[in-house]
Write a structure and sequence with these properties.
Length: 290
Protein backbone atom coordinates (compact mmCIF):
# COMPACT_ATOMS: atom_id res chain seq x y z
CA UNK A 1 0.00 0.00 0.00
CA UNK A 2 1.22 3.51 -0.89
CA UNK A 3 0.21 6.27 1.49
CA UNK A 4 0.21 9.94 0.56
CA UNK A 5 1.76 12.29 3.10
CA UNK A 6 2.35 15.92 2.15
CA UNK A 7 2.93 15.32 -1.53
CA UNK A 8 5.00 12.12 -1.26
CA UNK A 9 4.05 8.45 -1.29
CA UNK A 10 5.31 6.08 1.38
CA UNK A 11 5.11 2.33 1.99
CA UNK A 12 2.86 1.44 4.87
CA UNK A 13 5.78 0.77 7.24
CA UNK A 14 7.33 4.15 6.49
CA UNK A 15 4.11 6.17 6.54
CA UNK A 16 4.55 8.02 9.83
CA UNK A 17 3.47 11.18 11.57
CA UNK A 18 5.49 12.82 14.35
CA UNK A 19 4.51 12.28 17.97
CA UNK A 20 4.65 16.09 18.21
CA UNK A 21 1.87 16.46 15.65
CA UNK A 22 -1.09 18.14 17.32
CA UNK A 23 -3.38 15.77 15.47
CA UNK A 24 -2.07 13.12 17.87
CA UNK A 25 -1.38 15.30 20.92
CA UNK A 26 -4.76 17.05 20.92
CA UNK A 27 -6.96 15.51 18.24
CA UNK A 28 -6.41 18.83 16.49
CA UNK A 29 -7.26 18.16 12.87
CA UNK A 30 -10.03 17.08 10.52
CA UNK A 31 -10.85 14.13 8.30
CA UNK A 32 -13.09 12.61 5.65
CA UNK A 33 -14.12 9.02 5.00
CA UNK A 34 -14.72 8.58 1.26
CA UNK A 35 -15.61 5.60 -0.87
CA UNK A 36 -14.73 4.42 -4.37
CA UNK A 37 -17.08 2.26 -6.40
CA UNK A 38 -16.38 0.71 -9.75
CA UNK A 39 -13.31 2.86 -10.47
CA UNK A 40 -14.92 6.12 -9.41
CA UNK A 41 -14.73 8.19 -6.24
CA UNK A 42 -18.27 8.78 -5.03
CA UNK A 43 -19.25 12.39 -4.21
CA UNK A 44 -15.61 13.47 -4.08
CA UNK A 45 -16.39 17.16 -4.56
CA UNK A 46 -18.90 17.08 -1.69
CA UNK A 47 -16.38 15.42 0.65
CA UNK A 48 -13.70 17.99 -0.19
CA UNK A 49 -16.25 20.78 0.27
CA UNK A 50 -17.01 19.44 3.75
CA UNK A 51 -13.28 19.15 4.52
CA UNK A 52 -12.85 22.83 3.63
CA UNK A 53 -15.83 23.74 5.82
CA UNK A 54 -14.37 21.79 8.75
CA UNK A 55 -10.98 23.47 8.17
CA UNK A 56 -12.49 26.92 8.09
CA UNK A 57 -14.38 26.32 11.24
CA UNK A 58 -11.27 25.29 13.20
CA UNK A 59 -9.12 28.06 11.64
CA UNK A 60 -6.93 25.56 9.84
CA UNK A 61 -5.51 26.85 6.61
CA UNK A 62 -5.31 23.94 4.18
CA UNK A 63 -2.00 23.63 2.34
CA UNK A 64 -3.70 22.41 -0.88
CA UNK A 65 -6.39 23.97 -3.03
CA UNK A 66 -9.74 22.23 -3.52
CA UNK A 67 -8.60 20.92 -6.93
CA UNK A 68 -5.24 19.74 -5.54
CA UNK A 69 -6.99 17.95 -2.69
CA UNK A 70 -9.24 16.15 -5.19
CA UNK A 71 -6.21 15.20 -7.27
CA UNK A 72 -4.35 13.84 -4.22
CA UNK A 73 -7.29 11.54 -3.46
CA UNK A 74 -7.65 10.30 -7.04
CA UNK A 75 -3.90 9.81 -7.47
CA UNK A 76 -3.63 7.84 -4.22
CA UNK A 77 -6.42 5.55 -5.44
CA UNK A 78 -4.66 5.13 -8.78
CA UNK A 79 -1.32 4.24 -7.19
CA UNK A 80 -3.04 1.64 -5.05
CA UNK A 81 -5.06 0.26 -7.98
CA UNK A 82 -8.28 0.87 -6.12
CA UNK A 83 -11.55 0.27 -7.96
CA UNK A 84 -13.72 -0.35 -4.90
CA UNK A 85 -12.32 0.92 -1.65
CA UNK A 86 -12.30 3.19 1.33
CA UNK A 87 -10.34 6.42 1.40
CA UNK A 88 -9.33 8.18 4.59
CA UNK A 89 -8.26 11.76 4.09
CA UNK A 90 -6.96 13.62 7.08
CA UNK A 91 -5.37 16.92 7.81
CA UNK A 92 -3.56 17.43 11.08
CA UNK A 93 -2.59 20.77 12.61
CA UNK A 94 1.01 19.66 12.14
CA UNK A 95 4.12 19.38 14.26
CA UNK A 96 4.24 21.77 17.20
CA UNK A 97 5.43 21.99 20.77
CA UNK A 98 3.92 20.12 23.72
CA UNK A 99 1.76 23.14 24.52
CA UNK A 100 -1.65 23.12 22.91
CA UNK A 101 -1.30 26.48 21.19
CA UNK A 102 -1.68 25.77 17.46
CA UNK A 103 0.31 28.85 16.49
CA UNK A 104 3.43 26.80 17.18
CA UNK A 105 2.46 24.36 14.41
CA UNK A 106 4.14 25.58 11.24
CA UNK A 107 2.44 23.49 8.61
CA UNK A 108 -0.56 21.16 8.56
CA UNK A 109 -0.02 17.64 7.24
CA UNK A 110 -2.26 16.02 4.65
CA UNK A 111 -2.56 12.22 4.65
CA UNK A 112 -4.48 10.05 2.20
CA UNK A 113 -4.93 6.31 2.76
CA UNK A 114 -6.76 4.28 0.11
CA UNK A 115 -7.52 0.74 1.17
CA UNK A 116 -9.84 -2.14 0.46
CA UNK A 117 -13.25 -1.72 2.02
CA UNK A 118 -14.13 -3.71 5.13
CA UNK A 119 -17.78 -4.37 4.52
CA UNK A 120 -20.36 -5.05 7.20
CA UNK A 121 -21.54 -8.70 6.96
CA UNK A 122 -24.34 -9.13 4.40
CA UNK A 123 -26.50 -10.60 7.17
CA UNK A 124 -26.74 -7.14 8.82
CA UNK A 125 -28.36 -5.78 5.67
CA UNK A 126 -30.71 -8.72 5.19
CA UNK A 127 -31.93 -8.88 8.78
CA UNK A 128 -31.42 -5.32 9.97
CA UNK A 129 -29.65 -4.17 13.13
CA UNK A 130 -30.65 -4.13 16.77
CA UNK A 131 -29.42 -0.86 18.31
CA UNK A 132 -29.63 0.95 21.66
CA UNK A 133 -29.62 4.48 22.99
CA UNK A 134 -26.48 5.14 24.99
CA UNK A 135 -25.87 7.44 27.98
CA UNK A 136 -23.12 9.50 26.31
CA UNK A 137 -24.81 12.44 24.57
CA UNK A 138 -23.54 14.09 21.41
CA UNK A 139 -21.18 17.03 21.86
CA UNK A 140 -22.77 20.41 22.52
CA UNK A 141 -22.61 22.89 19.63
CA UNK A 142 -21.26 25.44 22.01
CA UNK A 143 -18.44 23.07 23.03
CA UNK A 144 -17.42 21.14 19.91
CA UNK A 145 -19.88 21.42 17.04
CA UNK A 146 -20.81 17.94 15.74
CA UNK A 147 -20.88 19.40 12.21
CA UNK A 148 -17.08 19.58 12.32
CA UNK A 149 -15.55 16.30 11.20
CA UNK A 150 -12.65 16.67 13.60
CA UNK A 151 -10.00 14.17 14.65
CA UNK A 152 -11.45 14.41 18.14
CA UNK A 153 -13.86 11.47 18.00
CA UNK A 154 -13.75 10.47 21.66
CA UNK A 155 -17.41 11.43 22.08
CA UNK A 156 -18.33 8.93 19.35
CA UNK A 157 -15.83 6.31 20.52
CA UNK A 158 -17.33 6.31 24.04
CA UNK A 159 -20.82 5.89 22.60
CA UNK A 160 -19.56 3.04 20.41
CA UNK A 161 -18.08 1.30 23.45
CA UNK A 162 -21.40 1.66 25.26
CA UNK A 163 -23.22 0.16 22.26
CA UNK A 164 -20.75 -2.73 22.13
CA UNK A 165 -21.10 -3.30 25.89
CA UNK A 166 -24.84 -3.56 25.29
CA UNK A 167 -24.24 -6.16 22.57
CA UNK A 168 -24.98 -3.77 19.69
CA UNK A 169 -23.12 -2.54 16.62
CA UNK A 170 -24.38 1.01 16.73
CA UNK A 171 -25.66 3.54 19.25
CA UNK A 172 -28.41 6.13 19.06
CA UNK A 173 -26.91 9.31 20.48
CA UNK A 174 -29.20 11.98 21.89
CA UNK A 175 -28.29 15.65 22.19
CA UNK A 176 -28.14 17.46 25.50
CA UNK A 177 -31.87 18.30 25.22
CA UNK A 178 -32.78 14.64 24.83
CA UNK A 179 -33.59 14.75 21.12
CA UNK A 180 -32.11 12.19 18.74
CA UNK A 181 -28.91 13.47 17.10
CA UNK A 182 -27.31 10.63 15.13
CA UNK A 183 -25.32 7.43 15.61
CA UNK A 184 -21.58 7.16 16.26
CA UNK A 185 -20.62 7.17 12.58
CA UNK A 186 -23.92 7.31 10.74
CA UNK A 187 -26.96 9.56 10.34
CA UNK A 188 -30.38 8.25 11.33
CA UNK A 189 -33.69 8.33 9.44
CA UNK A 190 -37.19 7.15 10.23
CA UNK A 191 -40.08 6.45 7.90
CA UNK A 192 -43.65 7.12 9.01
CA UNK A 193 -46.28 6.81 6.31
CA UNK A 194 -45.04 8.74 3.31
CA UNK A 195 -42.60 10.86 5.27
CA UNK A 196 -38.91 10.50 5.93
CA UNK A 197 -37.56 12.33 8.98
CA UNK A 198 -33.99 12.87 10.05
CA UNK A 199 -32.46 15.06 12.79
CA UNK A 200 -31.29 18.49 11.67
CA UNK A 201 -27.77 19.80 12.00
CA UNK A 202 -29.03 21.95 14.85
CA UNK A 203 -30.06 18.73 16.64
CA UNK A 204 -26.48 17.47 16.41
CA UNK A 205 -26.33 15.60 13.12
CA UNK A 206 -23.29 15.64 10.88
CA UNK A 207 -24.01 17.02 7.43
CA UNK A 208 -23.67 13.49 6.04
CA UNK A 209 -22.94 13.06 2.36
CA UNK A 210 -25.00 9.85 2.28
CA UNK A 211 -27.73 11.63 4.26
CA UNK A 212 -28.00 14.27 1.52
CA UNK A 213 -27.99 11.66 -1.27
CA UNK A 214 -30.82 9.79 0.48
CA UNK A 215 -32.82 13.01 0.98
CA UNK A 216 -32.50 13.76 -2.75
CA UNK A 217 -33.41 10.20 -3.78
CA UNK A 218 -36.40 10.19 -1.44
CA UNK A 219 -37.73 13.48 -2.82
CA UNK A 220 -37.29 12.20 -6.37
CA UNK A 221 -39.42 9.19 -5.53
CA UNK A 222 -42.23 11.33 -4.13
CA UNK A 223 -41.59 11.00 -0.41
CA UNK A 224 -41.67 14.06 1.79
CA UNK A 225 -38.57 14.75 3.87
CA UNK A 226 -38.56 16.68 7.14
CA UNK A 227 -35.98 17.51 9.80
CA UNK A 228 -38.07 17.74 12.98
CA UNK A 229 -36.85 17.25 16.51
CA UNK A 230 -37.14 13.50 17.08
CA UNK A 231 -37.49 11.77 20.43
CA UNK A 232 -36.87 8.11 21.19
CA UNK A 233 -40.66 7.70 21.16
CA UNK A 234 -40.71 8.75 17.49
CA UNK A 235 -38.17 6.02 16.73
CA UNK A 236 -40.15 3.37 18.61
CA UNK A 237 -43.37 4.07 16.71
CA UNK A 238 -41.76 4.47 13.27
CA UNK A 239 -42.70 2.18 10.37
CA UNK A 240 -39.04 1.88 9.42
CA UNK A 241 -35.70 3.14 10.62
CA UNK A 242 -32.36 3.15 8.82
CA UNK A 243 -28.86 4.59 9.14
CA UNK A 244 -26.79 6.21 6.43
CA UNK A 245 -23.04 6.61 6.15
CA UNK A 246 -20.18 6.20 3.73
CA UNK A 247 -19.17 2.90 5.31
CA UNK A 248 -22.59 1.40 6.09
CA UNK A 249 -24.36 2.98 3.06
CA UNK A 250 -28.02 2.41 4.05
CA UNK A 251 -28.69 -0.11 6.78
CA UNK A 252 -32.02 -0.97 8.34
CA UNK A 253 -32.65 -0.87 12.12
CA UNK A 254 -35.26 -3.37 13.25
CA UNK A 255 -35.03 -3.08 17.01
CA UNK A 256 -34.29 -0.04 19.19
CA UNK A 257 -33.98 -0.33 22.98
CA UNK A 258 -35.90 -3.60 22.85
CA UNK A 259 -38.80 -2.22 20.78
CA UNK A 260 -39.37 -3.93 17.44
CA UNK A 261 -39.56 -1.33 14.67
CA UNK A 262 -42.39 -1.80 12.17
CA UNK A 263 -42.53 -5.35 10.90
CA UNK A 264 -39.14 -6.23 12.43
CA UNK A 265 -37.56 -6.67 9.00
CA UNK A 266 -36.09 -4.12 6.55
CA UNK A 267 -39.11 -2.24 5.16
CA UNK A 268 -40.14 -1.41 1.59
CA UNK A 269 -39.15 2.28 1.70
CA UNK A 270 -35.67 1.41 2.99
CA UNK A 271 -35.27 -1.35 0.40
CA UNK A 272 -36.37 1.00 -2.39
CA UNK A 273 -33.83 3.62 -1.31
CA UNK A 274 -31.07 0.99 -1.09
CA UNK A 275 -31.75 -0.02 -4.68
CA UNK A 276 -31.63 3.58 -5.93
CA UNK A 277 -28.52 4.28 -3.88
CA UNK A 278 -26.70 1.26 -5.34
CA UNK A 279 -27.57 2.34 -8.87
CA UNK A 280 -26.13 5.79 -8.16
CA UNK A 281 -22.90 4.61 -6.53
CA UNK A 282 -22.21 2.27 -9.44
CA UNK A 283 -22.79 4.84 -12.12
CA UNK A 284 -21.47 8.17 -10.82
CA UNK A 285 -18.38 9.72 -9.28
CA UNK A 286 -14.97 11.11 -10.15
CA UNK A 287 -13.24 8.68 -12.49
CA UNK A 288 -9.90 7.33 -11.18
CA UNK A 289 -8.49 5.82 -14.36
CA UNK A 290 -9.42 8.20 -17.20
N1 LIG B 1 -22.18 10.98 11.57
C1 LIG B 1 -20.91 10.88 11.99
C2 LIG B 1 -20.57 11.28 13.36
C3 LIG B 1 -19.92 10.41 11.09
O1 LIG B 1 -18.66 10.33 11.48
C4 LIG B 1 -21.64 10.13 9.40
C5 LIG B 1 -22.55 10.62 10.32
C6 LIG B 1 -22.10 9.78 8.02
O2 LIG B 1 -21.63 10.75 7.09
P1 LIG B 1 -21.30 10.39 5.57
O3 LIG B 1 -20.79 11.67 5.01
O4 LIG B 1 -20.25 9.30 5.60
O5 LIG B 1 -22.53 9.93 4.94
C7 LIG B 1 -20.29 10.03 9.79
C8 LIG B 1 -19.25 9.52 8.85
C9 LIG B 1 -16.27 4.41 10.79
C10 LIG B 1 -16.38 5.76 10.17
O6 LIG B 1 -15.16 3.88 10.80
C11 LIG B 1 -17.59 6.37 9.97
C12 LIG B 1 -17.67 7.63 9.39
C13 LIG B 1 -16.52 8.25 9.03
C14 LIG B 1 -15.33 7.63 9.25
C15 LIG B 1 -15.24 6.37 9.82
O7 LIG B 1 -17.28 3.88 11.25
N2 LIG B 1 -18.89 8.18 9.20
Amino acid sequence: MKIYIDGKYYDQKNAKISVFDHGLLYGDGIFEGIRAYNGRVFKLKEHIDRLFDSAKSILLSLPLSHAEMMRAVVETCRRNKIRDGYIRLLVTRGVGTLGLNPNRCKSPSVVVIADKMQLYPEEFYQKGLDIITVPTTRNLHSALNPAIKSLNYLNNVLAKIEANNGGCEEAVMLNSQGFVAECTGDNLFIVKGNQLSTPSLAAGALYGITRQVVIDLAKESGLTVAEPNLTRYDLFIADECFLTGTGAEIISEVKIDGRVIGSGTPGPVTRGLVEKFRALTNASGQSIYD
